[in-house]
Specification:
Shape: elongated
CATH topology of the largest domain: Rossmann fold
CATH class of the largest domain: Alpha Beta
CATH superfamily of the largest domain: P-loop containing nucleotide triphosphate hydrolases
Number of strands: 18
Distance between the termini: 57 Å
Radius of gyration: 29 Å
Structural class: alpha/beta
Largest sheet: 5 strands, parallel
C-alpha cells in the first residue's frame, strides 16, 4: 500500500521512510503542502502521515483539501507533544488519528499496520457494495442451441479471456448471461459493474466509464472514479455497445489494447485488470461497413463472440422458464398458483415472442398480478396475435415512399415473428441491408 509522508524535517522523514518501507509500505515523500498535493493527485496513496507544522502553511489545509477531493484517503496527523487542540481540530476535519512527537518507531509501525487494515477493509466493503449479486445466477436451457450457449459461456468464464461479445435480439437475456459468466469465473468475488451505452449522453457516458478529475468540467466538484476503475479485478458489462459514439470508441479501444486509460481531465495513466463483456442487438459488421462502428474496436471486442438464439428458436425453454418466473412472482406477491395448464403451455410454445425472454417475464408478471385462480389457463396470458397483412402489400392505399418502406419492414417482421433473416428473404434483400433499414426507420426486430 502507498503511504505518503509529509514532513519538512529531512532527517525525520528519512527515518520514517526507512522504517515504514521495511514494514512493507510503498513510501512516498513530500516536504511541503504543495508537494503533498501533487503526489496525492498523481500517485493516490491510501494513507497520509502528515505533520501539522509545514513551511508553506498548516497541514490542516492539506487535510481539508484532500477530505473533499479524496474522501476515502486516510490521514494520520503528527503533532507536537501537548498540542491537544491541534489534534482535536484535525479529528474534526476528518483525520483518522493523530500521533505525538517525538515518535517511537516500533509503536508507529504497529499503529500504521492497524490503519492499513482499516483502509483495506473500507476498500473491500466498497467492492462488495458495487459488486453485482451474481452468486446464484442460473440459466434455464433445455433447447440444444441454448445448452451449447451455456457450455461455451461456462468455458469462457473459466478462461483468461478478457474481451467477450454477446450477440442477440433485444430481450434474449444478454445481461443475464453476462452475470452467469462473471459468477462462474475467478473474478466472481469482485465487482460486476454495468453501464448502458444507449442510456447516457456522450459526455456523461465518458465520465461514468473513465471517471473524472475535480474541475475537469462545470459540475465536476470532486474527483470521481469511473466504472472501469471501480471494477478493477472484476467484470464490466457494456450493454448496447453499438450505440457508443466514435469519440468514446477510440478511448475504449486503448483500454482493450493495454488496459490503461486516463480520467476525464486527468494526465496520469491508470491501469486496471478487468474482464469486459460487451453486448449488442445490432449487426456490428454492417455498422463497420457503414462506418458507424470502428473496425479495429470490433475486432478487439469480437475475440470471443457468443450469439444467443431468440426465444422462438428455443421452444423447449419456454415452459420451464415460465414456471420459473411463476415461482418468483408467487414469492413476491404472496400467492400460491400451482402452474400452467397443458393448453396454456402449448399456447406459450406456439407464440413467437418478439420481445423474447423479457416479454415472457412481463407476461407472467402481468397475469400473476391479476390472477385469482389456482392455475393459469389458456387465454389468461393475453398473448397478442401477430396481425395478418391486409390485402396486398399496402392494402391499395397510396403513402409516401419512406412510410411504405417502413410499413413493409414492419409487416415482414410481423410475419416472421421478428426474425430478421427471414424478413429479409421475404423482401428479397440481404440481411445486412434489412438491419440497416430497421435502424434507419428507428425500429427493432420486436416491432411487429
Amino acid at each position: 500500500m502507498k503511504l505518503l509522508i509529509v514532513e519538512d524535517e529531512k532527517l525525520l522523514r528519512w527515518s520514517l521512510n526507512k522504517t515504514l518501507a521495511k514494514a512493507g509500505f510503498e513510501v512516498l515523500e513530500a516536504a511541503t503542502i504543495e508537494e503533498g498535493r501533487g503526489i496525492i493527485l498523481q500517485q493516490e496513496p491510501g494513507i497520509v502521515l502528515l505533520d501539522i507544522g509545514l513551511p508553506d502553511g498548516s497541514g490542516m489545509d492539506l487535510l481539508q483539501w484532500a477530505h473533499g477531493t479524496f474522501p476515502s484517503l486516510m490521514f494520520v496527523m503528527m503533532t507536537a507533544r501537548g498540542r491537544v487542540k491541534d489534534a482535536v481540530d484535525a479529528m474534526r476535519a476528518g483525520a483518522h488519528d493523530y500521533l505525538e512527537k517525538p515518535l517511537e518507531m516500533e509503536a508507529l509501525v504497529e499503529h500504521m499496520a492497524r490503519v492499513k487494515e482499516v483502509v483495506e477493509l473500507k476498500a473491500e466493503l466498497q467492492r462488495l457494495s458495487t459488486a453485482g449479486h451474481t452468486e446464484d445466477v442460473k440459466i434455464i436451457a433445455r433447447a440444444p442451441a441454448m445448452v451449447e450457449v451455456v457450455r461455451v459461456a461456462h468455458a469462457v468464464a473459466e478462461s483468461g479471456a478478457q474481451a467477450i461479445l454477446l450477440l442477440g435480439e433485444s430481450g434474449v437475456g444478454k445481461d443475464h448471461l453476462a452475470r452467469y459468466i462473471h459468477a462462474h469465473s475467478l473474478r466472481r468475488r469482485l465487482p460486476f459493474m454495468v453501464i448502458n451505452c444507449a442510456a447516457l449522453p456522450e459526455a456523461l457516458l465518458e465520465s461514468e466509464l473513465f471517471g473524472h478529475e475535480k474541475g475537469s468540467f462545470t459540475d465536476a466538484k470532486v474527483q470521481k472514479k469511473g466504472i472501469l476503475e471501480l471494477a478493477d479485478g472484476g467484470t464490466v458489462f457494456m450493454d448496447e455497445i453499438g450505440e457508443m459514439k466514435p469519440s468514446i470508441q477510440s478511448k475504449l479501444l486503448r483500454v482493450l489494447e493495454d488496459w490503461t486509460f486516463k480520467r476525464v481531465g486527468g494526465a496520469r495513466d491508470i491501469k486496471v485488470d478487468v474482464r469486459m463483456i460487451a453486448a449488442t442487438n445490432q449487426d456490428l459488421v454492417a455498422m463497420v461497413r457503414n462506418r458507424d462502428f470502428r473496425e479495429d474496436l470490433y475486432y478487439r471486442l469480437n475475440v470471443f463472440p457468443i450469439p444467443i438464439p431468440p426465444l422462438r428458436e428455443r421452444v423447449e425453454d419456454i415452459p420451464p422458464m415460465a414456471r420459473h418466473f411463476l415461482q418468483q412472482y408467487n414469492r413476491r406477491f404472496g400467492k400460491s398458483v400451482v402452474g400452467f395448464s397443458e393448453s396454456a403451455e402449448r399456447e406459450m410454445a406456439a407464440y413467437p415472442w418478439p420481445g423474447n425472454v423479457r416479454e415472457l417475464r412481463n407476461a407472467v408478471e402481468r397475469v400473476m398480478i391479476l390472477n385469482t385462480k389456482p392455475q393459469i389457463e389458456t387465454g389468461d396470458l393475453q398473448l397478442r396475435p401477430v396481425p395478418p397483412s391486409p390485402g396486398g402489400a399496402l392494402g391499395g392505399e397510396i403513402v409516401p415512399l419512406r412510410d411504405a418502406e417502413k410499413l413493409l419492414i414492419q409487416r415482414a417482421l410481423a410475419k416472421t415473428g421478428g426474425n430478421v433473416s427471414k424478413a429479409a428473404k421475404l423482401l428479397e434483400i440481404t440481411r445486412d441491408k434489412m438491419r440497416y433499414k430497421i435502424k434507419k426507420h428507428g425500429l427493432s426486430p420486436g416491432d411487429a
